[in-house]
Amino acid sequence: GQQVMQIPQYQHVQEGEDFTTYCNSSTTLSNIQWYKQRPGGHPVFLIQLVKSGEVKKQKRLTFQFGEAKKNSSLHITATQTTDVGTYFCAGGQAGNNRKLIWGLGTSLAVNP
Amino acid sequence: DTGVSQDPRHKITKRGQNVTFRCDPISEHNRLYWYRQTLGQGPEFLTYFQNEAQLEKSRLLSDRFSAERPKGSFSTLEIQRTEQGDSAMYLCASTSQSLLEKLFFGSGTQLSVL
Asked: Looking at beta carbons, which residues of chain B come within 8 Å of A97?
Protein backbone atom coordinates (compact mmCIF):
# COMPACT_ATOMS: atom_id res chain seq x y z
CA GLY A 1 0.00 0.00 0.00
CA GLN A 2 0.91 3.63 -0.10
CA GLN A 3 3.46 4.70 2.44
CA VAL A 4 5.01 7.92 3.57
CA MET A 5 8.44 7.57 5.11
CA GLN A 6 9.82 10.31 7.28
CA ILE A 7 13.42 10.74 8.45
CA PRO A 8 15.04 11.14 10.83
CA GLN A 9 12.87 9.69 13.57
CA TYR A 10 14.60 11.81 16.21
CA GLN A 11 16.79 14.89 16.09
CA HIS A 12 18.54 16.56 18.98
CA VAL A 13 20.05 19.99 18.30
CA GLN A 14 21.57 22.89 20.18
CA GLU A 15 19.51 26.04 20.17
CA GLY A 16 20.52 28.09 17.16
CA GLU A 17 21.35 25.11 14.96
CA ASP A 18 19.34 24.30 11.86
CA PHE A 19 17.02 21.31 11.51
CA THR A 20 15.60 19.45 8.53
CA THR A 21 13.10 16.61 8.28
CA TYR A 22 12.41 14.73 5.07
CA CYS A 23 9.32 13.00 3.83
CA ASN A 24 9.21 10.46 0.97
CA SER A 25 6.19 8.82 -0.58
CA SER A 26 6.09 5.59 -2.55
CA THR A 27 3.54 7.17 -4.90
CA THR A 28 2.77 10.58 -6.36
CA LEU A 29 0.86 12.78 -3.96
CA SER A 30 -1.88 15.29 -4.73
CA ASN A 31 -0.65 17.53 -1.95
CA ILE A 32 1.35 17.38 1.24
CA GLN A 33 0.58 18.89 4.59
CA TRP A 34 2.82 19.47 7.59
CA TYR A 35 1.67 19.40 11.20
CA LYS A 36 3.39 20.06 14.51
CA GLN A 37 2.49 18.21 17.68
CA ARG A 38 3.84 19.48 20.97
CA PRO A 39 4.42 16.92 23.75
CA GLY A 40 1.04 16.04 25.23
CA GLY A 41 -0.77 18.02 22.57
CA HIS A 42 -2.59 17.40 19.32
CA PRO A 43 -1.41 17.95 15.74
CA VAL A 44 -1.61 21.55 14.58
CA PHE A 45 -1.64 22.41 10.89
CA LEU A 46 1.41 24.28 9.63
CA ILE A 47 1.16 24.38 5.85
CA GLN A 48 -0.09 22.70 2.70
CA LEU A 49 1.88 22.35 -0.54
CA VAL A 50 0.08 21.52 -3.76
CA LYS A 51 2.23 22.43 -6.74
CA SER A 52 5.24 20.56 -8.06
CA GLY A 53 8.44 22.23 -6.87
CA GLU A 54 6.55 24.56 -4.54
CA VAL A 55 8.47 26.35 -1.78
CA LYS A 56 6.78 28.18 1.06
CA LYS A 57 8.26 30.05 4.00
CA GLN A 58 6.88 30.84 7.41
CA LYS A 59 9.39 32.94 9.32
CA ARG A 60 12.21 30.50 10.15
CA LEU A 61 10.42 27.51 8.54
CA THR A 62 10.90 26.60 4.88
CA PHE A 63 8.78 23.93 3.24
CA GLN A 64 9.48 22.31 -0.12
CA PHE A 65 7.52 19.94 -2.34
CA GLY A 66 9.52 17.90 -4.82
CA GLU A 67 9.21 18.19 -8.59
CA ALA A 68 7.78 14.67 -8.81
CA LYS A 69 5.41 15.36 -5.91
CA LYS A 70 6.79 12.37 -4.06
CA ASN A 71 8.95 14.06 -1.48
CA SER A 72 8.95 17.07 0.77
CA SER A 73 11.09 18.71 3.41
CA LEU A 74 10.75 21.06 6.33
CA HIS A 75 13.76 23.14 7.29
CA ILE A 76 13.97 25.23 10.44
CA THR A 77 16.67 27.88 10.60
CA ALA A 78 18.22 28.75 13.95
CA THR A 79 16.06 26.52 16.13
CA GLN A 80 14.54 27.81 19.34
CA THR A 81 13.25 25.91 22.36
CA THR A 82 9.72 26.71 21.21
CA ASP A 83 10.33 24.52 18.15
CA VAL A 84 10.32 21.39 20.31
CA GLY A 85 7.77 18.82 19.22
CA THR A 86 7.06 16.19 16.62
CA TYR A 87 6.71 17.27 13.01
CA PHE A 88 4.48 15.13 10.80
CA CYS A 89 4.05 15.16 7.07
CA ALA A 90 0.77 13.89 5.66
CA GLY A 91 0.26 13.18 1.99
CA GLY A 92 -2.97 13.44 0.08
CA GLN A 93 -3.54 10.53 -2.27
CA ALA A 94 -4.20 11.18 -5.91
CA GLY A 95 -7.88 10.46 -6.46
CA ASN A 96 -8.69 10.43 -2.75
CA ASN A 97 -7.55 13.67 -1.22
CA ARG A 98 -9.74 13.15 1.84
CA LYS A 99 -7.61 10.39 3.31
CA LEU A 100 -4.17 11.56 4.29
CA ILE A 101 -1.28 9.14 4.64
CA TRP A 102 0.78 10.18 7.63
CA GLY A 103 4.48 9.79 8.23
CA LEU A 104 5.70 8.56 11.61
CA GLY A 105 6.98 12.01 12.47
CA THR A 106 10.33 13.50 13.45
CA SER A 107 10.71 14.37 17.11
CA LEU A 108 12.81 17.46 17.63
CA ALA A 109 14.54 18.21 20.92
CA VAL A 110 16.33 21.53 21.37
CA ASN A 111 18.99 22.10 24.02
CA PRO A 112 18.98 25.67 25.36
CA ASP B 1 -14.44 28.39 22.16
CA THR B 2 -14.82 27.68 18.45
CA GLY B 3 -12.33 24.81 18.17
CA VAL B 4 -12.93 21.09 17.96
CA SER B 5 -13.89 19.69 21.34
CA GLN B 6 -13.73 16.10 22.49
CA ASP B 7 -15.17 14.44 25.54
CA PRO B 8 -13.99 12.87 27.74
CA ARG B 9 -10.31 13.83 27.80
CA HIS B 10 -9.40 10.59 29.53
CA LYS B 11 -11.15 7.25 29.86
CA ILE B 12 -10.01 4.25 31.87
CA THR B 13 -11.99 1.09 31.38
CA LYS B 14 -11.74 -2.61 31.98
CA ARG B 15 -11.26 -5.06 29.17
CA GLY B 16 -14.59 -6.13 27.71
CA GLN B 17 -16.44 -2.92 28.54
CA ASN B 18 -17.96 -0.62 25.93
CA VAL B 19 -16.87 2.99 25.65
CA THR B 20 -18.22 5.96 23.71
CA PHE B 21 -16.45 9.16 22.81
CA ARG B 22 -17.93 12.40 21.55
CA CYS B 23 -16.58 14.98 19.15
CA ASP B 24 -18.01 18.43 18.46
CA PRO B 25 -16.43 19.84 15.31
CA ILE B 26 -16.10 23.47 14.31
CA SER B 27 -19.65 24.42 13.46
CA GLU B 28 -19.19 25.38 9.81
CA HIS B 29 -17.10 22.30 8.98
CA ASN B 30 -19.00 19.59 7.13
CA ARG B 31 -16.23 17.00 7.17
CA LEU B 32 -15.24 15.07 10.26
CA TYR B 33 -12.51 12.50 10.78
CA TRP B 34 -11.61 10.07 13.52
CA TYR B 35 -7.99 9.09 13.96
CA ARG B 36 -6.16 6.89 16.45
CA GLN B 37 -2.64 7.62 17.64
CA THR B 38 -0.30 5.56 19.78
CA LEU B 39 2.96 6.73 21.29
CA GLY B 40 5.66 7.32 18.72
CA GLN B 41 3.30 6.90 15.78
CA GLY B 42 1.50 9.20 13.43
CA PRO B 43 -2.28 9.49 13.42
CA GLU B 44 -3.97 6.43 11.90
CA PHE B 45 -7.12 7.05 9.88
CA LEU B 46 -10.24 5.36 11.25
CA THR B 47 -13.23 6.88 9.48
CA TYR B 48 -14.55 9.96 7.72
CA PHE B 49 -17.92 11.72 7.50
CA GLN B 50 -19.19 14.28 5.09
CA ASN B 51 -22.21 15.80 6.78
CA GLU B 52 -24.08 12.81 8.23
CA ALA B 53 -22.81 10.30 5.71
CA GLN B 54 -19.98 7.97 6.67
CA LEU B 55 -18.07 7.86 3.40
CA GLU B 56 -15.04 5.85 4.32
CA LYS B 57 -13.93 3.46 7.02
CA SER B 58 -10.48 1.98 7.46
CA ARG B 59 -10.26 -1.66 6.40
CA LEU B 60 -8.08 -2.20 9.44
CA LEU B 61 -10.92 -1.16 11.71
CA SER B 62 -12.49 -3.98 13.68
CA ASP B 63 -16.26 -4.34 13.59
CA ARG B 64 -16.17 -3.58 17.32
CA PHE B 65 -15.73 0.05 16.28
CA SER B 66 -18.67 2.11 15.11
CA ALA B 67 -19.09 5.81 14.49
CA GLU B 68 -22.09 7.99 13.89
CA ARG B 69 -22.81 11.55 12.99
CA PRO B 70 -26.60 11.57 13.09
CA LYS B 71 -27.34 15.21 12.32
CA GLY B 72 -24.17 16.14 10.54
CA SER B 73 -22.88 18.00 13.57
CA PHE B 74 -21.37 16.14 16.53
CA SER B 75 -20.06 12.61 16.16
CA THR B 76 -19.67 9.63 18.46
CA LEU B 77 -17.18 6.78 18.30
CA GLU B 78 -18.10 3.61 20.15
CA ILE B 79 -15.79 0.72 20.90
CA GLN B 80 -17.49 -2.47 22.02
CA ARG B 81 -15.83 -5.19 24.07
CA THR B 82 -12.65 -3.19 24.51
CA GLU B 83 -9.28 -4.91 24.35
CA GLN B 84 -5.94 -3.80 25.73
CA GLY B 85 -4.76 -3.12 22.20
CA ASP B 86 -7.42 -0.44 21.89
CA SER B 87 -5.48 1.74 24.33
CA ALA B 88 -4.56 4.87 22.40
CA MET B 89 -5.33 8.53 21.89
CA TYR B 90 -8.48 8.95 19.79
CA LEU B 91 -8.38 12.17 17.82
CA CYS B 92 -11.21 13.92 16.05
CA ALA B 93 -10.57 16.45 13.31
CA SER B 94 -12.83 18.61 11.19
CA THR B 95 -12.50 20.56 8.00
CA SER B 96 -14.44 21.80 5.02
CA GLN B 97 -13.91 21.53 1.30
CA SER B 98 -13.04 25.19 1.05
CA LEU B 99 -10.11 24.57 3.40
CA LEU B 100 -8.65 21.94 1.05
CA GLU B 101 -8.68 19.35 3.80
CA LYS B 102 -6.65 21.38 6.29
CA LEU B 103 -7.46 19.48 9.48
CA PHE B 104 -8.33 21.06 12.80
CA PHE B 105 -7.80 18.55 15.58
CA GLY B 106 -9.40 18.29 18.96
CA SER B 107 -7.36 17.55 22.08
CA GLY B 108 -8.26 13.89 21.88
CA THR B 109 -9.57 11.24 24.23
CA GLN B 110 -6.89 9.11 25.89
CA LEU B 111 -8.23 5.58 26.33
CA SER B 112 -6.59 3.14 28.72
CA VAL B 113 -7.93 -0.41 28.75
CA LEU B 114 -6.88 -2.36 31.82
From this structure: 100-101
Query: Which of A65, A61, A105, A112 lies closest to A85, judged by CA?
Result: A105
- Please indicate if any CB of chain A lies within 8 Å of the CB of B31: yes
pLDDT in tens, chain A (112 residues): 668 999 999 999 999 999 999 999 999 999 999 999 999 899 999 999 999 999 999 999 999 999 999 999 999 999 999 999 999 999 988 766 667 889 999 999 999 9
Q: Which residues of B touch A98 (CB under 8 A)?
A: 31, 48, 55-56, 101
Of A42, A88, A98, the CB nearest to B108: A42
CB-based contact B92:B45 (threshold 8 Å): no
Q: Phi and psi for A43 in degrees, rounded to 5?
A: -60, 140
DSSP B46-107: EEEEETTEEEEE-TT--TTEEEE-TTSS-EEEEESS--GGG-EEEEEEEE-GGGTT--EE--
Which residues neighbour A18 within 8 Å (Cβ) at sequence distance 6 or greater? Answer: A75, A76, A77, A78, A79
Q: What is the DSSP letter of A103?
A: P
